[in-house]
């Protein structure tokens, strides 16, 4: 494993921990999109189908369990926890899941590396992950006051994607690594979705201002 | 092989 991959995974882990910290400690999920969190739970559930049948490393299995466990527990907190769910901005978080899930599923049926159940599910999870942040970005744009933890959560998620691209470039040159169009293009699309957010994040950081996205 | 190198990622 190279340094970019490890840094990417750790950034991903940090993003989840920041979100859990906010929800668990402050007992608030204000500004967090339940739609995005449910999409991530679906992404991990469909991607890690082989978690108990295909062993790669202890690190790999452990991280998969963390991402599965954290994404489902965040959804549980936002839907069921009696204090946390009160802070959920239901009226603002109106993005329709199905508009993302259905096209991703159809695309995975058509464009995949092999037409098998596991392979189609894996491809679906890649396409869905690429766009899963959209409800969250829409919610951020509607929320006039983005709190620090929510801003950091989205920043860390975007950072994780950017580091994965560096990881692929590194692997391409150092390993007998083939071109993985599906993984790379969906990963690139996903990272580009953060470009606008990054711009305003750095802008607010440089000027020491509160993060606000233009309406 | 080719398949494995991507699936070892998260």
From TrEMBL, chain A:
GO terms for cellular component: endoplasmic reticulum membrane. One of its GO terms (biological process) is protein transport. InterPro entries: ER_ret_rcpt. It is a multi-pass membrane protein. It is found in: Endoplasmic reticulum membrane. One of its GO terms (molecular function) is ER retention sequence binding. The keyword Ligase does not apply. The chain crosses the membrane at residues 55-77, 98-115, 121-140, 152-170, 182-202. Keywords: Endoplasmic reticulum, ER-Golgi transport, Membrane, Protein transport, Receptor, Transmembrane, Transmembrane helix, Transport. PROSITE patterns: ER_LUMEN_RECEPTOR_1, ER_LUMEN_RECEPTOR_2. Belongs to the ERD2 family. This is ER lumen protein-retaining receptor. The lineage of its organism: Eukaryota, Viridiplantae, Streptophyta, Embryophyta, Tracheophyta.
């Amino acid at each position: 494993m190279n340094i970019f991959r490890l840094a990417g995974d750790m950034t991903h882990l940090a993003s989840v921990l920041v979100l859990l910290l906010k929800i668990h400690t402050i007992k608030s999920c204000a500004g967090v999109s339940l739609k995005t969190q449910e999409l991530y739970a679906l992404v991990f559930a469909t991607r890690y189908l082989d978690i108990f049948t295909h062993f790669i490393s202890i690190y790999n299995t452990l991280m998969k369990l963390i991402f599965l466990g954290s994404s489902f527990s965040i959804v549980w907190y936002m839907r069921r926890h009696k204090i946390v769910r009160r802070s959920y901005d239901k009226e603002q978080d109106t993005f329709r899941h199905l508009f993302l899930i259905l096209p991703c599923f159809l695309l995975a049926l058509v464009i995949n590396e092999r037409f098998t159940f596991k392979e189609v599910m894996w491809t679906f999870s890649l396409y869905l992950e690429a766009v899963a942040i959209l409800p969250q970005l829409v919610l951020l744009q509607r929320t006039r006051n983005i709190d620090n933890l929510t801003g950091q959560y989205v920043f860390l998620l975007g950072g994780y994607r950017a580091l994965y691209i560096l990881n692929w470039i590194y692997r391409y040159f150092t390993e007998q690594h083939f071109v993985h169009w599906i993984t790379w293009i969906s990963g690139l699309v996903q990272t580009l979705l953060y470009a606008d957010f990054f711009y305003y994040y750095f802008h607010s950081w440089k000027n020491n201002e509160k993060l606000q996205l233009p309406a | 092989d080719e398949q494995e190198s991507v699936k070892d990622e998260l």
